[in-house]
Amino acid sequence: MAQSVAIVDAFAERPFEGNPAAVCIMNEAGDETWMQRVAREMNLSETAFLYPERGDFRLRWFTPTVEVALCGHATLASAHVLWESGRIPAGSSACFRTKSGVLHARREGELIVLDFPATRPEACATPVGLEAALGARPKYVGKNAFDLLVEVGSEATVREIAPNLAALATLPVRGIMVTSRAEDTAFDFVSRFFAPSVGIAEDPVTGSAHCCLGPYWGERLSKTYLVAHQVSHRGGVIRVGLRGDRVDLVGRAVTVLRGELLA
């Protein structure tokens, strides 16, 4: 049976910005091998798979090589598709059952607000080979359940990093966030995100990373609402609200393709 699929640019102000995610809506649970093959075919950072479950939606995320436990931009894209297709009424929130617990999304005008868990980093020793792989000296290195957070000295350093991806892929983490204070006063901090160990050389805009980056910079800047700029080649803006052990990730989404999977 054909399955509907859409490609949505998440954390984007207009098409072909932000982070593209494929969203596949199914009537029931799918075979994991099939989902992984579809994600490899889509060849995007993440492909989201949705199906009804106990009045809500089960949501799973796959990179081209593995299933992951938390993904922000593909969740934002999924909520956008559910509202756009009428599967959820425009005034209702979306509820997703995931490997990281129950996640919610709501609309505030043109913005989508994701209710996600905060994943604060804890300071750790600099892993052997990290500085050489990045080609930059860390000011701080921390780790949460998924990733390494590396603060460097300037936005220019963040923008100019050309890491050795093969070396980064040997580190026992999902990905590496590289971040600094922003030079542009419109933003609080900037970042980039590299995850070669899960098949993503550089992720354009990474919602789940801001579950860590937001609390990190919120503490340092004494703020509970921050505006972040992920300075990848596509780029994107994420607004982050801090609420104790939860964060609000706020952004826009734009559908750029709708179709059917025939295999």
Would you write up a description of this structure?
It is a single chain. This protein is of the alpha+beta class. It folds into 2 domains: 3-106 and 251-261, Diaminopimelate Epimerase, Chain A, domain 1, CATH 3.10.310.10; 122-244, Roll (Diaminopimelate Epimerase, Chain A, domain 1), CATH 3.10.310.10. Helices cover 19% and strands 42% of the residues. The protein has helices spanning 32-42, 73-84, 130-134, 155-160, 165-168, 210-221; strands at 3-10, 19-25, 46-53, 56-62, 67-68, 94-98, 101-108, 111-117, 122-123, 140-143, 147-151, 175-181, 189-195, 200-203, 225-230, 236-243, 246-251, 253-261. It has an 18-stranded mixed beta sheet that branches. Strand 16 and strand 17 (246-251) form a beta hairpin.
Tags for this entry?
alpha+beta; globular; Diaminopimelate Epimerase, Chain A, domain 1; 18-stranded mixed sheet; 2 domains
- How many discrete domains? 2
Give start-end ranges of low-pLDDT stretches. Answer: none
- What is the mean pLDDT? 96
Encode the helix/strand succession as letters.
EEHEEEHEEEEHEEHHEEEHEEEE
CATH-defined topology of the largest domain: Diaminopimelate Epimerase, Chain A, domain 1
The CATH class of the largest domain is Alpha Beta
What's the architecture of the largest domain in CATH terms?
Answer: Roll
Question: Could you name the CATH homologous superfamily of the largest domain?
Answer: Diaminopimelate Epimerase, Chain A, domain 1
Structural class: alpha+beta
